[in-house]
TrEMBL record:
Taxonomic path: Bacteria, Pseudomonadati, Pseudomonadota, Alphaproteobacteria, Caulobacterales
TM annotation in the entry: 20-44, 64-87, 96-114, 134-154, 161-182, 194-210
Organism: Caulobacter mirabilis
Highest rank taxon of the organism: Bacteria
Protein name: DUF998 domain-containing protein
Pfam families: DUF998
Keywords: Membrane, Transmembrane, Transmembrane helix
InterPro entries associated with the record: DUF998
Length: 216
């Protein structure tokens, strides 16, 4: 009985540790993939080109980017959302929020198997492009809602005061930037990076918040 109680007491710390490393690794790997793969493609522009174009059909290192980059990024971010949702104090808002945020991670898993065409067109008859667009849309719609819900829920979390205003700010910024991206502005790649930067910033801060609170 004593051993079982000790194991049960250690479970929250294990879950928080998993959430921290999954979130931190996912963010770090995503940044590395964008920087390294972008540098390895002459003419690629972080201002004009979408992130997904690094793994587009026919791109110089598409398969490596998709399965060595986007897939593990998606798995890490999805694992982060699952583990973080299990941390106390649990609530319906927390569960729904991390489920919505998890769509962003699942989107990266999906685009590894459904790469876009060059330019990532909004309309296409190609099934891979259609699936790419649908899964990306789900992630970009779900993540802002998730961050706002989690920001509100974070008011009850120990040692996570920053997550409330940051969740609202990142949710609103990513929503506005995504709406702007849909209008196909000249600097579409840069606007997309604002969307994703807002999301991964919140993930990273949340991951470190969980690590600081792991003994609470």
């Amino acid at each position: 009985m004593a051993r079982r109680a000790a194991l049960s007491a250690g479970e929250p710390t294990v879950i928080k540790t998993v959430a921290f490393w999954a979130g931190a690794a996912g963010v770090a790997l995503l940044v590395a993939v964008i920087v390294v793969a972008g540098a390895a493609w002459p003419g690629y522009s972080h201002v004009d080109n979408f992130i997904s174009e690094l793994g587009a059909t026919g791109s110089p290192h598409g398969r490596l980017v998709n399965f060595g980059g986007f897939l593990p990024v998606g798995l890490c971010l999805t694992l982060f959302s699952i583990a973080a949702a299990l941390v106390e104090p649990r609530s319906r808002r927390r569960t729904v929020g991390f489920a919505c945020l998890g769509l962003f991670g699942l989107g990266y898993v999906a685009i590894a198997f459904f790469p876009c065409e060059f330019g990532c067109p909004a309309t296409s008859s190609d099934i891979s492009q259609v699936m790419h667009n649908l899964t990306s849309l789900a992630g970009y719609l779900g993540a802002p809602v998730g961050m706002i819900l989690l920001g509100l829920a974070a008011r009850r979390w120990p040692g996570s005061g920053l997550l409330f205003p940051l969740g609202l700010a990142c949710g609103l910024v990513s929503t506005a930037a995504f709406a702007w991206m849909l209008s196909e502005p000249p600097a579409s790649g840069l606007v997309q990076r604002v969307v994703e930067g807002s999301i991964v910033l919140w993930v990273l801060v949340c991951a470190f918040s969980l690590r600081r609170a792991r003994t609470i």
